[in-house]
């Protein structure tokens, strides 16, 4: 039996983190109850953290259930052919009250060999930035494992890493192997491969409430790191009421839609589409039914939804697999 097709929203999966704060509530209206909420997982099929539908006829069903029942209709014909019934991406909002740990993600080959998992290519869209907020992305100059280990041992790792000041609207694309950290004072929309594999290499010697440090993965990271300089910043155009490409990689395509009025959308059914509303409000009309969305909402458009209309004044990230 084919399931009913309509724009899907999911209950956020909220994560407390040592570096988290309260901006997911104050900036994005997430229902957090803790002062150290660092992440809202918006769309996930990571084991133990599978998203559950929060609206309409399919409310209460998990993302994996509805994909299992109707893979072509939800994922799209091309995505289903390539990934089977796996949902290949993970969508999050993050609030960094403090610096995140310095970390790296393995590529597909290494992740498959070690963890039977996808690698973790990802991108960040800066939704809100305090004054002087920054990120760490890659090395200042080409490095090597010996120089890296020497600086790690001497607690001078930050001196060889690239430190970039950021502002709202900046986008960074991080291929696997890029050493990175989100800095304090940032709210970020994150799009990545479905993977929860992170090698933490330096955590600023932090301890939790019980006085424990978090586990580091220095040895695992050695083989995963790209020691070359990397260019992670992505410039993009902002033509109104249309899709402006920001990132196009084998794992996902992300566009920026500055909506001010109407955008009629026509899809082919080969991939699902995800909208992350990063500012403003908009409506989506499909089959004579209108749904309303606001900043902080994430919407999964099943691949079988081919024609619909966006209307409003909003900034939207549009993500699909091409």
From TrEMBL:
- Show where the Mannose-6-phosphate isomerase cupin domain sits: 246-320
Give an example GO biological process: carbohydrate metabolic process
Q: State the protein's name.
A: Phosphohexomutase
One annotated GO molecular function:
zinc ion binding
Q: Which UniProt keywords apply?
A: Isomerase, Metal-binding, Zinc
Q: Which SUPFAM superfamilies match?
A: RmlC-like cupins (SSF51182)
Q: Which residues cross the membrane?
A: none
What is the protein's species of origin?
Flavobacterium frigoris (strain PS1)
Q: Does the keyword Secreted apply?
A: no
What CDD domains does this protein's entry cite? cupin_PMI_type_I_N_bac
In its keyword annotation, does this UniProt entry include Methyltransferase?
A: no
């Amino acid at each position: 039996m084919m399931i009913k097709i309509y724009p899907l929203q999911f209950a956020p999966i909220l994560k407390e983190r040592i570096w988290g704060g309260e901006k997911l509530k104050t900036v994005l209206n997430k229902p957090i109850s803790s002062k150290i909420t660092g992440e809202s997982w918006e769309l996930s099929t990571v084991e133990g953290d599978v998203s559950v539908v929060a609206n309409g006829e399919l409310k209460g069903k998990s993302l994996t259930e509805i994909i299992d029942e109707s893979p072509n209709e939800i994922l799209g014909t091309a995505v289903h052919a390539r990934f089977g019934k796996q949902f290949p991406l993970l969508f999050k909002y993050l609030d960094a009250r403090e610096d995140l740990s310095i970390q790296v993600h393995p590529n597909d080959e290494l992740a498959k060999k070690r963890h039977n998992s996808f690698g973790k290519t990802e991108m960040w869209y800066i939704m809100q930035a305090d004054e002087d907020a920054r990120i760490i992305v890659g090395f200042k100059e080409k490095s090597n494992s010996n120089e890296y280990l020497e600086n790690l041992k001497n607690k001078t790792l930050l001196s060889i890493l690239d430190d970039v000041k950021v502002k709202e609207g900046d986008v960074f694309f991080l291929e696997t192997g890029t050493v990175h950290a989100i800095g304090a004072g940032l709210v970020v929309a994150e799009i990545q491969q479905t993977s929860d594999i992170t090698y933490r290499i330096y955590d600023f010697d932090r301890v939790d409430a019980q006085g424990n440090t978090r586990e580091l993965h220095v040895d695992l990271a050695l083989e995963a790191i790209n020691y070359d300089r990397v260019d992670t910043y992505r410039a993009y155009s902002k033509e109104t009421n249309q899709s402006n490409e920001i990132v196009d990689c084998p794992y996902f395509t992300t566009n920026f839609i500055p909506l001010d009025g109407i955008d009629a959308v026509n899809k082919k059914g080969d991939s699902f589409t995800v909208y992350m509303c990063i500012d403003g409000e908009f409506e989506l009309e499909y089959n004579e039914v209108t749904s309303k969305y606001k900043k902080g909402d994430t919407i999964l458009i099943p691949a079988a939804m081919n024609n619909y209309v966006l209307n409003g004044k909003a900034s939207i990230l549009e993500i699909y697999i091409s």
